[in-house]
Amino acid sequence: MASRAEEAMKCGFDMPLVTYEERITTTLSLPHLLTMKTRRLREDDIFITSYPKTGTHWVWEIVNMIVAGNAEYAKHWQNHAFLEYRSEAQLDEIPSPRVFFTHLLPRQMPEEVWERKCHVIHIDRNPKDAIVSFYVQQTNQNWINKSKPAAFTGTWDQYVNANILGTVTFDSILGHVLAWSRIPELHPAVPYCQVQFEDLKKDDVAEVRKLSQFLGRPLADKVYVEIAEACRFDKLKHASENLKDQTFHNRWNKGSTGYFRKGETGDWKNWFTVAQSESFDKAYEETFKQTFPY
After folding, report:
1. Domain range spanning residue 48?
2. In a domain, 264, yes or no
3. Are the C-beta atoms of 55 and 195 separated by less than 8 Å?
4. 131, exposed or middle or buried, with CB in 10 Å at 0-12, 13-18, 19+?
5. What crossing angle do the helices spanning 204-214 and 221-230 adopt, rounded to 10°?
6. Fewer CB atoms inside 10 A, N or C side of the chain?
7. Residues 6 or more apart from 254 whose CB is under 8 A from it?
């Protein structure tokens, strides 16, 4: 019987994948996952948790600016703080307070996150929009084997179905969201903040203020506005591709928009067929015991 990772590769994921702790991951991250739970942390570490393509770059940059107290961009690409793709020694070089981001599930996180009561910020987004964005990324990027055409070479229908089944890299977005939604109940003493992509789109200044207050780092009202403006799509895209140290910037196929595609809401309607949307809605309802809210 094929493993879930093997099933993922059969449906079009053209990269080395393994099943570790019942979750599909890349072989590249496996060495770091083996030591993840016992990693040593600092009490002022900040964790941004998300499923890919839900606004991770956006929130990571905002939080770094809040920590710095101004609207200056962080020097490096956020990938230098990618928890499951960096060794403990590499991450130890980052000065405090460290702002990590991760796509791991709660049960895969370092135990000291909960013991030290580190601040955790989780990002959610309409999962259909996230799936579309991740599909575009994975059909235009291959950062593991440059000789391959792309990380995913299957069809859009295969990709949607794989997300429903959970046979995708990082597993299904539904299981990811469900697991993180339970943190306030499982770890009530851990400072936990929920950020919604769609709320950031509606009022980014208010969301910057909320994050600042959550982190216990209040700033002047004008700084909230400056941070929000600096982190809007076009400006952050320009800064990330032209101003930042490019050491941790992955390469893309010619013509790709890279990490920054559209940054909009509702694009899923241009991709999902009626049948695909209904299938996903059913899977959502089975997972969360409620109707699809978007």
Report:
1. 4-241+255-288
2. yes
3. yes
4. buried
5. 120
6. N
7. none
> DSSP characters for 85-142?
GS-HHHHHTSPSSPEEEE---GGGS-THHHHTT-EEEEEE--HHHHHHHHHHHHTTB-
Contact indicator for 68, 15 with CB cutoff of 8 Å: no
Torsion sign over Cα 158, 159, 164, 168: positive
Q: How many domains does the chain have?
A: 1
Q: Is residue 281 part of a domain?
A: yes
Residue 188: partners with Cβ closer than 8 Å, 6 or more residues away: none
For 36-101, the DSSP string reads GGG----TT-EEEE--TTSSHHHHHHHHHHHHHTSSPPPSB-GGGGBGGGS-HHHHHTSPSSPEEE
Active site residue 122: no
Burial grade of 260 (CB within 10 A; 0-12, 13-18, 19 or more): middle
Q: Is 247 within a domain?
A: no
Distance CA 79, CA 109 (A): 17
pLDDT of res. 220: 98
CATH number of the domain where residue 107 is located: 3.40.50.300
Give the tens place of pLDDT for each residue, 223-251.
999 999 999 988 887 877 776 666 655 55
**CB contact set of 80 (below 8 Å; sequence gap of 6+):** 86, 94, 247, 248
- Tokens read off for 154: 């299957």
Q: Is 19 helix (H, G, I), strand (E, B) or coil?
A: strand
Amino acid, res. 179:
A
Read off the pLDDT of residues 17-67 as tens digits, 9 standing for 90 and up.
889 988 988 888 999 999 999 999 999 999 999 999 999 999 999 999 999
Q: Which among 32, 80, 103, 249 is annotated as catalytic?
A: 103
